[in-house]
Amino acid sequence: MPDVDQVSALIRSVAKTEILPWFRNLDASAIREKTGPLDLVTKADEAAERALTPALASLLPGSRVVGEEAASEDDGVFAHLDGDDPVWIIDPVDGTMNFAQGRPLFAVIVALVHRGETIAGWIHDPMDGRMATALKGGGAWLDGRRVRVADAVPLPSMVCALSTRFCDDALAAQLEERAKGVGERVNLSSAAQEYLRLLEGRAHASLYHRLMPWDHAAGILLHAEAGGFAALADGSPYRPSLRSGSLLAAPDAESWRVLRDHLFG
Known about the structure:
This protein is α+β, with helices and mostly antiparallel strands and 265 residues long. It has two domains: 4-147, Fructose-1,6-Bisphosphatase, subunit A, domain 1 (Fructose-1,6-Bisphosphatase, Chain A, domain 1, 2-Layer Sandwich); 155-264, D-Maltodextrin-Binding Protein, domain 2, CATH 3.40.190.80. The chain has helices spanning 4-19, 43-59, 68-73, 96-100, 169-178, 191-200, 213-225, 253-264, and strands at residues 31-36, 39-42, 64-67, 87-94, 107-114, 117-124, 131-135, 140-142, 145-147, 159-162, 184-185, 205-210, 229-232, 244-250. The chain has a seven-stranded mixed sheet, sandwiched between helices. A five-stranded mixed sheet has the order 11-10-12-14-13, with helices on both faces. Strands 1-2 form a two-stranded antiparallel ribbon. Strand 5 and strand 6 form a beta hairpin. The longest helix is centred in the first third of the chain and has 17 residues, at 43-59. It is globular. The relative contact order is 0.13.
């Protein structure tokens, strides 16, 4: 296992030198679409991933790297997740749309996966300095303080990030209607920021339908190490190699069951 603090220091350094100088300093030439107007990449994403990729690999000889921007250019890098070598997963700027619009709701996500299992995770908010870390079996930590998810509450009191992006129209319509029975929806357009809210106890649940590993591998480990429960809507466990399905996280297994049954019937 790499040294957690060493990885944290590396992430902080890259965020300071490669991401923050671009914040609210992007012109049109520094932003481009990947698959469409809602899927953006900026010079900050590319610079941060270029810096993190060799630096992380050097911390763990023999490891591989799956970065969001590299994967967008070469789908073959996903094959690393099925191998025996440890794999670093990088989301250099999670919440790129927010970043490009000058909204301070973005973060850096790094996960370490070995033989299909996430064994370490980091989420760093460069704007306020928050750093969440977890090693499998070692608890979840936020700025050096061990954290736990919020206590379970009834559905009408839940604060949730319930996304309907990337699911079919029928399911989206069903979820929008049934979400009216949930207390409050807070969608931040950044999975990292939503996982941080779960760790801080400021939200109770989240729901996603596109499961790219850089968005969720670290967050699901952090959430589990903080005492939370997550699974796909059909009850199967999350795996970093998954790229589709509905992923629901809640304070505990019973809350998960109640929310899943309410939303999906």
